[in-house]
Amino acid sequence: MDFRFFAQGLAVGFSIAAPVGPIGILCIRRSLADGFAAGLACGLGAATADAAYGCVAAFGLASAANLLRGLQPHMRLVGGLFLCYLGLRAFLARPAENPAPGDKASLAGAYGSTFFLTLTNPATILSFAAIFSGLGLARAGGYASAALLVAGVFCGSASWWLLLSGGIGALNEKFNLRALQWINYLSGAVLIGCGWLALRR
After folding, report:
1. Helix (H, G, I), strand (E, B) or coil at 91
2. Is the pLDDT of residue 48 over 90?
3. Which of 45, 74, 79, 94 is close enough to 114 for a disulfide, judged by CB 3.0 to 4.6 Å?
4. DSSP category for residue 97
């Protein structure tokens, strides 16, 4: 068993998660509004979806990949509408003076919403397929190596979300209520804009 596949998956997962897009905005906002645990749960939902798409690419599940590509217009519609909904909620949300630690239901909601939202972007699988193919990683060492690759993708993606939510969560006390309200306005507007762009494609 070659653990180089895990290290390569780690690098791929981190690099795909790191660019700040709609999911990053959601994670930042949740970390500021609801604390570190909520931000991390949000990020782990995205990391799980990344691992799921990485699994499809790494194990060469061509039929599943083709099905996802065929569903892309419908998934983009659902994802765009969901982004607009989340953006509107963020825009209208009132910041809490002392955010309470997230309960199991709210953490599950944060996890599930970003997991679902990431899955509605099947272009992610094309990114994994292209990277794995370009690096000669896909199925290069059999199923055991492919499993290590997917585990690395999850850990790499999760490590980025841990860093982001931890760093942003540490800044929470430095923002007053007025600043948090403007962050809600800004993040809500960005999410609505991303959803609108997804719907127009």
Report:
1. helix
2. yes
3. 45
4. S
Domain ranges, residue 9: 4-200
Domains in the chain: how many in total?
1
| CA 155 from centroid of its chain's CA atoms | 13
Phi (first) and psi of residue 140, to 5 degrees: -65, -30
Distance CA 39, CA 23 (A): 11
The pair of three-digit structure tokens given for residue 65, joined into one six-digit string:
């990949």
The tokens describing 116, both together, are 């679902």
- Banded pLDDT at 111 (limits 50, 70, 90): very high
**Buried/exposed 49-87: b ≥16 CB within 10 Å, e otherwise:** bbbbbbbbbbbeeeeebeebeeebeebbeebbebbbebb
The C-alpha angle with vertex 141 and arms to 161 and 151, in degrees rounded to 5, equals 20
| Integer CA distances (angstroms), 20 to 6, 65, 200, in order | 24, 25, 21
Match 């607009």 to its residue by tokens. 84
The structure's pTM equals: 0.72
167-190, pLDDT tens digit by residue? 887 776 666 667 667 767 777 787
**DSSP secondary structure string, 174-190?**
GS-HHHHHHHHHHHHHH
Exposed/middle/buried for residue 137 (C-beta within 10 Å: 0-12, 13-18, 19+): buried
CA dist., res. 40 & res. 152, Å (int): 18
Q: What is the mean pLDDT of the chain?
A: 76
